[in-house]
Amino acid sequence: MSEQTLDPLLIDIPERLDGERTVLQAPRAGLGAEMAVVITQSLSHLRPWMPWAQDAPTAESSELVVRRMLVDFITRRDLCFQIYARRADGSPGRLLGGTGLHRIDWTVRRFEIGYWIRPEALGQGHVSEAVRLLTALAFDQLAARRVEIRCDPRNLKSAAVARRCGFELEGVLRNDTLGVDGAARDTAIYSRILA
After folding, report:
1. Using one digit for the tens of pLDDT, what is the confidence trace for 139-185?
2. 128: how many CB neighbours lie within 10 A of its CB?
3. Nearest to residue 129, comparing CAs of 12, 26, 17?
4. CA-CA distance, 150 to 173, in Å (whole number)?
5. Cα atoms in the Cβ-side hemisphere of radius 13 Å centred on 43
6. pTM for the full model?
7. DSSP conformational letter for 96
């Protein structure tokens, strides 16, 4: 039976992906306190783009989110990973942010990559490496037909990651969602498809 015909629950999805400088790890219980600190330190950077990053989370609220991510990973509804700097010995070092394959349509085999990173790790290539690792996972192991990156067209850094990783701008959906301020905003859609 091919990966495409398997029930998603039967697909072995790695819980760790290794890049040259970056390690992606699936959610694990006990990460909430550390995640709360990283999000709190990143609020001013994330607040314009991420509805979930408007207020500082508590260790308990972040632990609840992490455990829900773990359940979604196990049930294949959402495949979240944390981004870590890779130590010289290959082990995960400092927690840098989050990423994952979201808005999954297993019938079409469509995935959307999302990402965020703490401000002091910007411009170091960790997000691009994470996107490349997830794109390879989607096409090589999950039989993806389509992988998307969606972002506000004003989020130039996010759009630059998409272009740098070989995603093509398909178009801009005008006034298709509300921003964190409640105003209508546009969404740029970048994609890579199975050739």
Report:
1. 999 999 999 999 999 999 999 999 999 999 999 999 999 988 889 99
2. 17
3. 17
4. 10
5. 9
6. 0.93
7. E
